[in-house]
Amino acid sequence: MQALDYDIISVICDSIEERHSLLCLALTSKTFLEPALDNLWREITTFYPLLCVLPEAGEFNGDKTLIEPITERSWKRLFYYTCRVRSLKGDLCPVVPTVYRTFSVLEKPLFPYIKSISLGNELFCLRTIQESFLSNTLQSVSLISSLDADILNYRYDLADSDDFGPAVSFIAEKVPHLRELVMIKGKCKELPLLLKKLQNLQSLRLYLYSRDFMGSSLLQTVHSLPNLDELGISTIDYRLSPGVALAHLEIPTMRTTPGFLHLTKLDIATSALGLSELLDNMPENQLSLLVFRVSIPPSWIPTADQHCESFGDIPTVFSKFVVKQRVSLETLRVGDRFYSPANVLDLEEFYREDWRSAMRIILDGLSGLTSFRYDLPLRLTDDLVEVMAKSWPNIVELELNVHNSDPVSVESLSHFARHCSFLDRLCVPLKVDDISLDSLERVENFCRPLVLGIAQVEESRTRKIKDTFERVLPWVELEIIPDMKPGSAYFELLVG
User: Fold this and answer.
1) Distance, CA of 51 to CA of 56 (rounded, Å)
2) How is the chain split into domains, by residue range?
3) How far apart (Å, rounded) are the C-alpha atoms in residues 369 and 329?
4) Cβ-Cβ contacts under 8 Å for 353 (sequence gap 6 or more)
5) Highest taxon of the source (predicted)?
6) Which pTM value belongs to this model?
7) Chain centroid to CA 173
8) φ/ψ of residue 457, rounded to 5
């Protein structure tokens, strides 16, 4: 029998999700031993398994610890496993902190081939952790606030928020070749200066407290990073109530020197004017992904002045990025879910023409879209759904999380069946009151597995709807959604 190729064996191991099954495979077959161990140790979230392979380890007050000095033979045994670790994330508990000091005396990193670390900021700042983990193979670091975010949301004193400065400073000094940096829920006053030392960054994602630390100096620095491919910036404002996380980022006027030369993915929470400023400072037809988040505080009803100040001229800005990025843009996300449904009606009425104009601009100018998600108020109609299907023949994912809109008819699905041959996922509100055999037969050629969520209605009506679908579209699976408004449905097309 011909031996299996190593790559094929690795694919088989990757396809086994149950860790116990993978371990059994490693222990029962020499052929699968090494690939299976590579898979099992690729990512760890605690030091516990490391100590389990050491005979010198024991327990103290319920935590794993070292009760004897580690012998040279045990070190070799440990490195047999740690050289397979590529990703480290979590709080690394439950182990006694003195264990970290033991590992820090090593002359070489404990994880010599590690590529990604995701830790709490306080834990990462421990010198013993830094000396044990940081390797010249490290490519990605994610720092997460060690403080309670729910408590922080109620405080206005920024001195209480987690300071990422010491951790980023150490990274800039020891890992200047870092490619990805993620910072979640904290602050870092020195960030603009420290980023200048990380000139190899390809991905920078910041989700930090207080827009006070996201000023012009930061954006000027980010603007000049030569290899940056992905940028995501959102800020958290203490003045907003808990649950409303995103605050608009104020974009200063940039310098005219070229920047963002390699940026292809942009995820930004800002006003239309801020987005316009960013687009003015990057090359045309370069973005493949744009996420434009719009956050609205609860019970906020805008005046005309606030409309211009906070959002700017939405259709004009949409026209700008359609013109500048129409060739390259494949994925577009507009809006966000960080606003209160209570004021959606007011917003829809106030911005009605803006939303409609913006949607028409997107439909007319971005025929190459493969993924589109819309999370803002919009009046859906069957005619608009038909235009969408015709405008985006290459669309793969389409999600319309529209609010305060009447659901569209089931017959509207026929437009996607006719024009969108690559569609794998579709979410759109549908009417269920008028579902009939005739309406379903019109979309019968839409022969793909799908899940259709419908509102909680009387049991007899639910059974009738299910029978109707099963008779005409047997590949449809119905799901009852209790909190959905009766008379509408949520249609989701899944990959077959």
Assistant:
1) 8
2) 1-41, 388-495
3) 7
4) none
5) Eukaryota
6) 0.78
7) 28
8) -130, -175
